[in-house]
Amino acid sequence: MPPGPGVVVAVALAVAVTVALSVRSRRKRTAALAAQWQAFQQDRRSGQGQLLQVMRVYQHGRRGSKAIVTWCDTDRQQGAWFWNHVPAGAYLLVNASSGYGPHSHNPNVLYVQPGQVRAWVPGQAARAAQRVGQ
Which residue ranges run through the membrane (predicted)? Predict the structure, then answer.
C-alpha cells in the first residue's frame, strides 16, 4: 500500500528543514572563516611576520612536521621544519630563520619554532573571504 499524503508531506518537510539547516550552517562557517581571514590580514598589515602557505606536509613526527612552504610575497618554495604540527593549506605569519638541514643535506631549510608562528588561519579562510567579497 503506498504511503498516504500526510506521510509524503512530512518527509518533504523534513528534507526541506534539513537542507535549510545545512545551508545556514555552511553560511555561518563561511562567515566565521572570512572573519578569521580579515583578522589575519590585520595582523599581517601590522607587521606580525612574513606570510607563507604550507603547500604540502610530507612527514609528521612526534615533535613536528616537515613541509614544503611557499612565501606568498615571492612565490618562492622552501623546505621547512615546524616544531609543532601544521595543516596543509594553512597560511602562517612567521618570524623564522633558515639553516642547514642535516637529514636532507639541504643548506636552506626554514626552521620554525612554536613561538615564531605569530598567527595562522586554515586555507579555507582565504577561500571563504573570496566568497563573501572581502
Answer: 6-23
Strands ordered across the beta sheet of 106-112? 97-101, 106-112, 77-82, 65-71, 50-60, 91-94, 117-121
Q: Does pLDDT of 11 surpass 90? A: no
Q: What is the pTM of this model?
A: 0.77
What's the 3-state SS for the chain? Answer: CCCCHHHHHHHHHHHHHHHHHHHHHHHHHHHHHHHHHHHHHHHHHCCCCEEEEEEEEEEECCCCEEEEEEECCCCCEEEEEECCCCCCCCEEEECCEEEEECCCCEEEEEEECHHHEEEEECHHHHHHHHHHCC
Domains and CATH numbers, the chain: 38-133 (2.40.50)
